[in-house]
Amino acid sequence: MTKKDKSKTRWIIFFITPGLIVVSLIIIYPLFASLLNSFFAWDGFERKGFVGIDNFISLFVRFPYKERFLNAVGNNLKWFFSSMFIQNTLGLLFGYLLGRNIKGQELYKRLFFMPVLLPIIAVGFLWKLYYNPQFGLFLKIFTFFGIENLFKPWLGTPSTATYAIIVMNIWRWIGFPTLVFLAAIDNVPDECVESAHIDGASEWRIFWKIIFPLIIPSIMVITVLTLIGSINVFEQVYSTAGLDGPPNYASDTLGTLFYRSAFGSQASTVPEIHIGSALSVIIYLACLILSVTSIVFFQKKEVEL
Question: Taking the model in full, what pTM does it have?
């Protein structure tokens, strides 16, 4: 190795070392600590004997862990499918329309992306006021149109609580996939689209046969981010409904269940670090496996197309 190469290597090490230290302290160490803690019994903050995978078994077969865990998984699935098929589909539609050089395009871009810049906690508390059944904005809108009888306390109804929070989250995040898809569509070669127009292809056929295959990488990115975001839902539920996912845990997610298990809540002040650690490992593995699966799937689709 030449002197120049050695100097270059030292500079590379110098610049990446601080980042590696930070990543090790806030990601790698907590990950392995959670994995280790999940194999032990805990009494409050005191670690007891080794129990193997008993904590994981509790989440799948024992009351009340099984019921709470499956309920949270079901809600996370609702988050994913709602975000994937409503938020991202609308984002693709809006991105396509904005890519048609419509009047006021720059203004619409800013309006769509503005909610993304707002703090999620502030958005949650704001929408909690909107949903208020006594003086909320939605009640006033329904009253204005004379359909106040259709208004319900959506956050206080078990069957609608999760969906009410999802609507809030879609409003906040829809600008992100919109701009990602807009950027991807803008990068589609103009000659491809123009040639299709000359050949008499319809707008739908141009989109499905030319534009859509070329934006597969962006669809992959949005899908993976949606997966990770849906599994890690916490702030939205906490700021809108509360830590226990009321009413009756109807809006509980893996994120709120993990926090409540590991640190305790208003309903249960006793922390169960062993259960929380097992949940954190499951959340991590779910993010890893589903993300890698999605990436492999879309890469194969990209090659086929």
Answer: 0.89
